[in-house]
Amino acid sequence: MADHLKLKDNPATLKLLSSFSAGNEVLVFSGYVDKINAYGKSQKRVLIITDRGLYNVDNSKCKRRIDLQSIAKIVRSATGYQFVLNVPEEYDYLYESSHMADICQIIATNYQVQGGQPLEVKVVDAKDLKPYVMTKKEAKKMNKDIESLRSSMAAMNTKGGEIDRARTNTVTHFSENKEQVELEDFDLLRVLGKGSFGKVMLVRYRKNGAVYAMKVLKKDSVIQRKQLEHTMTERQILQAVQHPFLVGLRYAFQTEAKLYLVLDYLNGGELFFHLKQAKRFSEDRARFYTCEILLAVGHLHSLGIVYRDMKPENLLLDAQGHIHVSDFGLAKQDITDNSSAKTFCGTPEYLAPEVLSGKGHGRAVDWWSLGTLLFEMLAGLPPFYDRNVSNMYKKILNDKLVFPPHFSATAQDLLARLLERNPERRLGSSPKDAEEIKAHAFFKDVKWDDVLNKRIPVPFVPTVRKEQDEPRTKDASNFSQSAEDVGNFDKTFTEEVVRDTMAEPLSNGPKEGNLFDGFTFVQESKLK
Q1: Which residue ranges does the record assign to the AGC-kinase C-terminal domain (predicted)?
Q2: Residue 328 and residue 230: Cα distance in Å, rounded?
Q3: pLDDT (tens digit, 0 to 9) for every residue of the chain, 528 residues total?
Q4: Binding-site residues for ATP, please?
Q5: Is 309 a catalytic residue?
């Protein structure tokens, strides 16, 4: 917590927060800032940031509260102390503060914690950020122009009735065998997880009884939270990559209101689930998982893809105990160096120093995250973990790496090289990429071809309910089949009533109509 003004327990502050959220918000920052208005005039303000909102306070009176989830982007100076909050529903806010870096990190972190998706943080060289600000007057004019354009297009669409009616149908795609899929082709069995945009459900394909994980995203949430690029990138990567240790995409389809990704179901559960139960892994078990992850991430890098979201929650086990890397929403395509990407994104515990500093990043961030993950598997906690996110960021940037006594010498050496703060000196940062890491002594006895072909004995086989003798029924509550077992997933979700809730379709504006073109996909049949 960066409570510079000591306001956490201040009665006036508590009353202020209670008036907006019934006391449910947690203060994470307080400090003085200069708010710069449309005329360039600087106004001294107290800035209070909670885990859910931002308060602009003047003389103990709240002049403005901004919900963190309404912020679309932060623009911050690389050479000065100014930053801009882009709030599409209102207008932009320009601030200046010596705490600028901390403020931007705190906002971005709590935005992601609450919403599940990263907030774009753009770093620019300019000291004066006024050219990046949309004023209240400009925002009002733009919104008026947009509404006028939408009204015109809506009138045009009513003349093309056949085209307009077609948009209400499920959009599907055909493979070589002319297979068509839509929501009605699947039985909804269980909820596996939920996020800010939708949920993941266990489903059964009625045509052949195959069981999949269906990720459902609400289009309006994707657009409102400025996650269109991340969503389409995930869809493109899922189709493009095929690897033994990457989750596979089977189908993608959409309706007017939602997007559906039908993925391989890995009933062994999240690595997070098993690490939580075991507290920590043996070195052999941790090495086994690291080998499979290393091959998966190396394959992504060979395609110019930086993963950027490595954490135990995104690593799934199949029934045999092998790793499958999932969730490519934060991945970045066409990256071949260590500095091209600029977005502040990822999970706090696994963020590389170059992401925190905003200097640009590339493939090497994945190797920092791999080092963090390996450390956590061996120790039970990430190397720089702190319950206070601001303190954790400071530790990532500055603290000495300290190893528990049970770490082997080769594990310590590998981790020291992966958790090198300079990305240019980090193991794996050279053009050799994953090959450089594979050559380390920690992996000296590993036969990589056997790893790729799953010929290495697994150190742990997840407990998956076995098939029973009774015949399969069409009742979604029948979970006698091992393929449908959800015992390795959080009961908080799996015991929920499963349903695909209604959602409002997007408007017929020209922009929304084409945003999700190219999303639909059906895997080609392998049968000849």
Answers
A1: 444-528
A2: 8
A3: 789 999 888 888 888 888 776 567 889 999 999 999 878 888 999 999 999 899 998 877 888 889 898 898 898 988 889 999 988 777 789 999 999 999 999 999 998 888 777 888 888 888 888 888 875 555 454 444 434 434 443 443 333 333 232 333 344 342 333 467 889 999 999 888 776 567 889 999 999 899 999 988 888 777 766 667 677 777 778 877 889 999 988 888 888 888 898 999 988 989 998 999 999 999 999 999 999 999 999 999 998 889 988 999 899 999 999 999 988 877 887 766 555 555 666 678 888 888 888 777 788 999 999 999 999 999 999 999 988 888 888 999 999 999 999 999 999 999 999 999 999 999 999 999 999 999 999 999 999 999 999 999 999 999 877 544 333 344 434 444 466 776 777 676 666 766 665 555 555 444 444 555 555 545 554 433
A4: 215
A5: yes
Query: Tokens 């920052």 map to which residue?
Result: 29
Domains, the chain, ranges and CATH?
Answer: 2-128 (2.30.29.30), 183-266+482-522 (3.30.200.20), 279-453 (1.10.510.10)
The residue type of 66 is: I
Name all contacts of 411-415 with Cβ < 8 Å and 24+ positions apart: 411/283, 411/374, 411/378, 411/442, 413/440, 413/441, 413/442, 414/371, 414/374, 414/440, 414/441, 414/442, 415/371, 415/374, 415/375, 415/383
